[in-house]
Predict the 3D structure of the following.
Amino acid sequence: MSDAEDRSDKRVFGKAIKRNEDIPLLTGSATYTDDVMLREMVHLAIRRSDHAHATIVDIDTSEAEAMDGVIAVYTGEDVVESGVPNTIPTAWMLPGLVTPQYRMLAVDKVRHEGDGIAAVVAETPEKARDALDAIEVTYEKLEHVTDPVDAVESDVPPVHDEAADNVAFDFELGEKDVVDEAFEAADHVVSVDLRQPRIIPNAMEPRAAVADWDRGTEELRIWMTSQNPHLHRMLLSAGTLGVPENKIQVIAPEVGGGFGSKIYHYPDEAVTAWCSMQLGRPVKWKASRMEAYVTDCHGRDHTTTAEIAVNDDGTVQGVRVETYAGLGAQLSQFATATPSYLYSTILSGEYAIPAIYCRVIGAFTNTTPVDAYRGAGRAEGIYVIERLMDVAARELDMDPAEFRRRNLIPADQFPYQTAAAVIYDSGEYERAMDTALEHIGYDDLRERQKALREEGRYLGIGVGNFVESAGLSPSGLAGDLGAQAGGWESSIVRFDSTGTVTVLVGTADQGQGHRTTFAQIAAEELGVDIDAVNVVEGDTDQIPQGMGTYGSRSASVGGGAIARGARDVREKAREIAAHQLEASVEDIGFDDGEFHVVGAPDRSMHIQAVAAQAYLGHNLPEEMDPGLESTNFYDPENFTFPFGTHVAVVEIDPETGAIDLERYVAVDDCGEIINPLIVEGQVHGGIAQGIGAALYEGAVYDDDGHLTTRRMDEYAVPHATYLPDFETENTVTPSPHNPIGVKGVGESATIAAAPTIVSAVVDALEPFGVTHLDMPITPERVWRAMGGGD
Amino acid sequence: MYANDFEYYRATSVAEAVELLVSNEGAEPMAGSHGLLPRMRTGEEAPPVLVDINGIDGLRSIEETEAGLSIGALTTHAEIARSELVQTHAPALAVAAQAVGDIQVRNGGSIGGNLAHGDPRADLPAAVLALGGSVSVTGPDGSSSIDATELFHGDFKTEVGDHEIVTAVEIPVAANTASTYVKYRNPLSGYPLIGVGTWVQTDDGGETIEAARVAATGNLVRSMRLEEVENALIGSAVDKSTIDAAVAEAAVDEELYRQDPQASAAYCNHLLAVRTAEALDTVLAIETN
Ligand SMILES: Cc1cc2nc3c(=O)[nH]c(=O)nc-3n(C[C@H](O)[C@H](O)[C@H](O)COP(=O)(O)OP(=O)(O)OC[C@H]3O[C@@H](n4cnc5c(N)ncnc54)[C@H](O)[C@@H]3O)c2cc1C
């Protein structure tokens, strides 16, 4: 089917149409934050700590201030003296949480390499950067800690005085006694120690901001790389700057990737705005790539002991998990939610597990703050349960796929209350698993594996089942659990008087293709051409409210708000059509944009003609106001739970330990599919990131607390050439409670891929008695696991 | 990051380039800029003056000379990789050039720059060392030649003087020889974690190894010859046991490796042996010419 045919079809929901955003992005006409140029604009650079932990004895800025082109140099004390609230708040409270003040610039101590110390504003970015080196900082070095277990268990000076043992929170889910009993009663208990390394997000576009403070009106306009402009508006207002929320406009123009890292309110953007407020001039700040490595929130950083209780019949009886989660030096907004609720509540995976207990100790360390990264919490949790399923299958001498199948939650059990507090909405787990195993030819592969082993070749087959809790989140539930914000999304769906449609929505695209998928939803509901719909995101002055894009929420929650808004608009239009066609509303049918009197098809009116009438207002039903638009707040009744099965085939080079990824099959069920092309794109990118974590990535700190993986040639984001062709399929199990049946797909494949790859490599190494290897599974790790270096 | 400010000159002759280097304190020549600019942008280097040598005629060619091949310093990796002359007479260099970076890098980077840069990770040094090559340089005192074995000091330092321009790379060609290069990519950077260049010369019957050179590059402090491996080869029969004996010598002191976040010195030494074996298998199995 050609694109032309596709686009004129009114039934666009579910069609693989090409993305609306690609022409501006590919031709370079799109505007990113760094493209914003304002009159009189000056440039900010931030002096950062070279040390992991040190007392600031003195900051001498005099030389920098005297440099050519330097306009001002500010320190943390200057920010304090300005009287702004100066607090980056946490967005999720937990019982007993310690919340030290997280300031815009450090005042007393630096707590991680990259901590901001001073701000230089100069005429050019180069001059600002040059002046950084002229700032003399006298430090008194302190002992530091970068590992979350060491932070809590060994005797090190605290990162914050408020948390003497470096424990920010100690979180529990489930009843320990009950779970302990299940373990006592089970035939086998198997355990595994896991380390999930820190991941550096590496969005293509580094963070940036352009702030413009108007001294006359006392209004702040700020362009920034944001996944959630409204959240940033709120935090800039209530947290850091104290400017009334209605006097701040946050604009997120094109944003080049985020993967979570652009959700948060960082010090840097607040400092940019604050500098503009001091100077009354527009200020631009843009992170360098190396700055991004030490300041963008990292992901993961878990050290876990996990146990699984199983019976001889291959049924899982319980799961018990203890995790030390590194939070970094400060509490970023969702740093507390990610390793607690988002992690522990997914530990049931796709399986019927009667007893689950999880304890998480959140630890401050002298490192870059850690927060949600694609898959946040769910990725870590699914990794734990999938590793447990593998080690348990090995213990029982069962095929790992068969063992998993035996424990799947049956399709007739939904909605399913897990032992980890959440209710899964819908699922046909076995269907997706069968599809994946058939696609890859699982049984034949096992035969081939056996034959190759005879020849001294090591093939590995990894199976990964996953569930994701997506669509963050029902506000009431989130509030009960400690969220400091709601989980709804809002939209305005508006017919313009000439019949075009404008959709304003509070989500914020960073590459996902919202302008296409959201237009498909509205076009379908309203029966208009997709090209008649324009989707607007990323501007708090145009879009009244919103929560943003993260946690695989945009299609389900944002899309839900758009569908509901469009339906309201359609029903108002139906009333106008009924009035003008002189029929009763019940007798008005609607097909492909055309309202018609049932039984009299020639008496009809197109919805776009109705829109014109709505704005003319000459002939409307009595008491009806003119106009044709709807504002909708959609608060979902539950999370959605996408799921699926991924399978990977690897072969290990016994000489070097190199891993050849031969095949990768992904079967995803994300509910109804709005655009298969975009779903496939999300799956491809997600798999790549999961493979990255499994085989290549992982931040490393040296003994001095310096990040040694701080550049593109020291930290491996997987290259396209490292990846095989992905073979993708979908099953469709609609979410019963979502207005359009979608579940979301943004994080699924990242969640699935890491455990699938690890499972495959460990499977290949079975003849060597290997039951687990930590990520990243480098060739050296494999080589050593096979006895190399002994 | 932004590079520091610098002045830029474009030389049109070697003499002018030398003159510019002499008269500008701290000046550096610039060829393909694929080695220099990344380091300027990270702040590792900050030359106040760049002398662009790309406008100099006559530095971009591959010619047969009496002694072998003469390759102009500005010849790109891509040109070397697809040169039939290089493929025939110096296969190690063609393979190494093809293994460099990606297509943009191969189209931009030059052999002179690659060798003069002194990046211990670079591919070409192992091939040039194995082939017994040398570089011709011209400075204020005239022209001279630097043997590859003298060239690499490690840590981006080379024997090429501050005021000298590499004009060509000379590769000797002889009968009954074979050579190749084997690269094991570091997934972090794409540069070799270990790269091994080998060259052997046999007697007319192809039964005895008369001369051999083996060189390594990658995660080492500098690109270097592996003399123990060479000694195990020279004078030995072309057979499996010779390869085994040579491979047993393919290890260097662990201090000669740099830190890598994902590969220990012990593992690098293991890779060195595996790649040496692979390279020797190739050169000793193929017809010598
Ligand atoms: C993304 C990327 C990947 C890469 N991957 C690889 C790889 O896998 N393997 C590999 O070997 N290399 C790799 N490189 C480096 C590439 O091969 C460089 O081009 C090469 O090392 C330097 O050559 P150049 O011509 O670019 O020199 P330049 O960058 O211009 O110069 C490098 C240095 O040599 C000096 N210099 C240059 N020419 C001369 C001359 N004629 N006389 C005297 N001094 C001179 C300069 O002053 C400078 O100090 C990569 C580079 C990039 C950007």
